[in-house]
Amino acid sequence: MTLTITAQTVSVESIEKLNELSGESVKKCMQCATCTGMCPMVQEMDFSPRKVMHLSQFGLMDKLKDINTYWKCASCHACSVRCPRGIDIAKVMEALRQQVLRKSKNHIEPSEISAEQITELPQIALVAGFRKFTS
Amino acid sequence: MKISYYPGCTLKTKARNLDRAAVASLEALGVGVNEIERWNCCGAVHSLTADDLIHQVGPVRNLIRAKEQGAEKLVTLCSMCYNTLARANRIMQNDPVKRDTINRFMDEEIDYAGEVEVVHYLTYLQQEIGWDKVKEQVKVPMTDLKVAPYYGCTLQRPAEIGIEPFGSYALMAGLLEAVGATVMAFDAADKCCGSYQVLGVPAGENSAGAAIVNLAASAGVEALATSCPLCEYNLGKQQQQMIDKGKIATTIPTYYFTQLLAVALGLDAEHCHFELNDPQSAGLLRDKKCLAAAA
User: Fold this and answer.
1) Is A114 helix (H, G, I), strand (E, B) or coil?
2) Rounded (to 5) percent helix, strand, coil in chain B
3) Is the ipTM of this complex over 0.90?
4) Looking at chain B from residue 141 to 170, which residues have their Cβ under 8 Å from any Cβ of chain A?
5) How many CB pairs under 8 A join A and B?
6) Are A34 and A79 in contact (CB under 8 A)?
7) Cβ contacts of residue B224 below 8 Å, gap of 6+?
């Protein structure tokens, strides 16, 4: 993917919104990719956590809107504990999820979960999943 | 000695094997267990957005119940409950603005400022009872059982609430050694099992969980010990489906560490509820001649 970054493509507003929601500063990231190396879900992700951080630094929300990375994130904080810049990357991923969910868009539909799965799953899986995937 | 205890929802139903074995073990070690009254769901996951305080109300209410009932410490067991309670507690201790907002929001509850200490069961055992005393009480040692502590994410992360530093598994290793097991190390003890991602994935196709089981198998681990019902579901109960889908080559029985403790203390199998584990779990203990009480 080729990115052309100019003063016009950078969205200061998007960066500020992301920082405010996450309580972090995405600009601190120095692109070392330690987060990507630590992430247990990275093989299933469209973009690596490092790449998401890079796009976030320029507020390029268009490039982030259809990817699965922040939906695949399990908030395990493996990235956060090893980030040499002290960024809680899991919080940035949460902010990206919340920007979708707060527009009343569900990522999964609870009504589509099979009765069999509901019977089997521990309650914490359902509560956690609904918290992370539904508005 | 008596402790205040928060079980959490899953431990009352699908993870009774975690809860019942824990309570019976503490009683066998001379500790009374007082389940706090009127507890509610902890919320399962900590809210990570800076402006979301409403989801802190659930865990904080539980802490208030403990304070009202005179508890200085609240012992909990499920890794996810421990994580959400401990993190909400830190907000109430360290963030006066959020603390005031949350306290003002709750009309009927007393004010709370983090007075109750949230303690994980393993920490409690090590600090208040000690591995030597546990060892003295062992009646059925887990001789020859090669078991690896599996912590997953929420017992250790983030660092400020971790029961021990990232990369260290001394608490569970200490307990497993005390019950006579051979403690094994493997490269995925702190890796995420896939957690609530299981909601969107067909049975047996959780690659994060499969990677952990495969790494355990290649390290010669015979069994995994965990503290979390979601880890147990992803790693233990899903194993047959993972085999069927070709994700893993061999099964590894998965236990709650409290079940191994209860068996070692010689408690009746009725306290352990092995019927809720993956099917091969009770079988391995029987093969190792550890499950005399449940035979």
Assistant:
1) coil
2) 50, 10, 40
3) yes
4) 152-154, 157-159, 166
5) 133
6) yes
7) B147, B148, B150, B216, B235, B236, B252, B253, B254, B255
Nearest residue, CB atoms, B48 vs list A40, A90, A108: A90
Report the C-alpha gap between B287 and B284 in whole angstroms. Answer: 5
Going by CATH, does the domain composed of B2-121 fall within 1.20.1050.140? yes
B48–A contact, CB cutoff 8 A: yes
Nearest Cβ partner for A128 among B44, B159, B237: B44
* Extended strands (E) in chain B: 2-6, 32-35, 73-76, 117-120, 146-149, 182-183, 223-226, 254-256
Write the pLDDT tens digit of every residue in A34-65.
Answer: 999 999 999 999 999 999 999 999 999 999 99
Inform me whether the C-beta atom of residue B198 falls under 8 Å from chain A C-beta atoms: yes
Question: A12-103: what fold?
Answer: Fumarate Reductase Iron-sulfur Protein; Chain B, domain 2 (1.10.1060)
Q: B4 forms bridges with which residues in the sheet?
A: B34, B74
Would residue B224 be called left, alpha or beta, if left means φ above 0 and alpha means ψ between -120 and 50 degrees? Answer: beta
Domain B131-294 annotated CATH 3.40.50.11810: yes
CA B92 to CA B83: how far, in whole Å?
A: 14
Taking CB atoms and an 8 Å cutoff, what residues of chain B touch A75? 45-46, 48, 153, 195
Range(s) within chain B of domains with CATH label 1.20.1050.140: 2-121
Per-residue pLDDT in tens (0 to 9) along chain B, 295 residues? 899 999 999 999 999 999 999 999 999 999 999 999 999 999 999 999 999 999 999 999 999 999 999 999 999 999 999 999 999 999 999 999 999 999 999 989 999 999 999 999 999 999 999 999 999 999 999 998 999 999 999 999 999 999 999 999 999 999 999 999 999 999 999 999 999 999 978 889 999 999 999 999 999 999 999 999 999 999 999 999 999 999 999 999 999 999 999 999 999 989 999 999 988 899 999 998 887 644 4
Nearest chain B CA: its distance from A36 CA (Å): 13
Nearest CA in chain B to A110: B199
**Residue B33 structure tokens:** 């267990």
